[in-house]
Amino acid sequence: MADTTDEFDVVVIGAGPAGENAAAYAIAGSDRTAALVERELVGGECSYWACIPSKALLRPGHVLAAAKAMPGVTADGLDVAAVLARRDSFTHRDDTGHDDCSQVDWAEDNRITVVRGHGRLAGERAVEVGGRTLRARHAVVLATGTTAAVPDVPGLRAALPWTSRDATAVTEIPGHVAIIGGGVVACEAATWLAALGARVTLLVRGHALLAGNEPFAGERVAAALAGTGQVEIRFGAQPERVHRPDVADTGEGRIHGGRVTVELGGGGSVEADEILVAAGRAPHTGDLGLATVGLEPGYLPVDDHLTVDGVPGEWLYAVGDVNHRVALTHMGKYQARVAGDVIAARADGRPLDSPRYTALADHDLAPQVVYTAPEVAAVGLTEAAARERGLTVSAVELDIAVAGSSLARDDYAGHAKLVVDETTDTLVGATFVGPDVGEQLHAATIAVVGRVPLETLWHAVPAFPAVSEFWLRLLEARR
């Protein structure tokens, strides 16, 4: 078959949430055209193997715990099959795999052409997909994301360990899982696996969970996990060798063979039915044709318009995890909206002097929720990070103990902390830990991004008897 060439205004490689948003915003309200290139599923990691399935697996355990903490409410336990079936309904998964038809329909309804296959750069404004070349009149956007990183531990890769994809697509609940890692993926996976009946051993190289957060966040999550009786946490645990004599490639989310043994540095070992690697991510750029535009594989630094550094002509953009600014789905979508607007403005010859054309929120303003039990919700800088940046800050913190939290559940236990820039009397960071505190985060995000003075926050009156009354208690503690 002869090679073919097609022309679009915008070509996006990677059809996850960031890629979808970049394409949609770049052509919105115009007659511009966009192609969305995807080698796997339209909807990307988030829709099928990350945010959506993980939260579907976590929520039933949270609801059960809340029910058990409420006198007069009976709660027997989780129906594992029903939990997995509900997860599958969100990820459009059956025995034959995932179905991305609804995402493809969305793209087509928004005048975005879906191109199946592995896309690679082929020089300036050109993308090659199989024997087809897609040429972009205005922009190419890279939104290829990241993949799970597997440490170079002898025997680990040969053991066919689970990655986050297996954990979120779990169909067989192992009796005992060893998890390498102590970050968000490790802690969330430990939470839902324990709720579904597995015993879990967390092997944490450092000496804290969720090390990038305020220290009390990791401490409270660690205490809660240990308190389940299902989870053991080993800090300072460095895997040195992995043995699995009976390995079997049984498929995603299934136990990959016989028992696995993890030898630890300094002596000792852990034996489990499965091992899950949750030790970070690596950029998906190794086979992206970067050399054709003078770039090396790896993360792709960008400016605040999301234009890739080192490529002349302002035609190449990178959004989402691949640019290594903030590896969160909602931040990738935010970047994509900015990039899409920038592409549209440049295509129309409009100036970029409006704030909407500059990505600001991924500079120390990003919100994140860790859906453990308790949840961790944070935005902006920790106290330590603020001081490292040379800011003069103070902190106010207290336990969340108000009428609303007492009414929410009998065992409510939470903690809140604000980091205040003393020079401007504004918030630069906030961290909340407790049941469902993710629903409290957007108020803090608005205060941090909007640089709202604390004197003004006195007039933002929390409703009674809501959990959000703890905001008033925080302000009172700083009087």
TrEMBL record:
Pfam families reported for this sequence: Pyr_redox_2 (PF07992), Pyr_redox_dim (PF02852)
Span of domain Pyridine nucleotide-disulphide oxidoreductase dimerisation: 367-470
Keyword Flavoprotein: yes
UniProt keyword annotation of Oxidoreductase present: yes
Domain FAD/NAD(P)-binding: 8-335
Annotated InterPro entries: Class-I_Pyr_Nuc-Dis_Oxidored, FAD/NAD-bd_sf, FAD/NAD-binding_dom, FAD/NAD-linked_Rdtase_dimer_sf, Pyr_nuc-diS_OxRdtase, Pyr_nucl-diS_OxRdtase_dimer
Enzyme class: oxidoreductase
Annotated protein name in UniProt: Dihydrolipoyl dehydrogenase family protein
Organism: Nocardia jiangsuensis
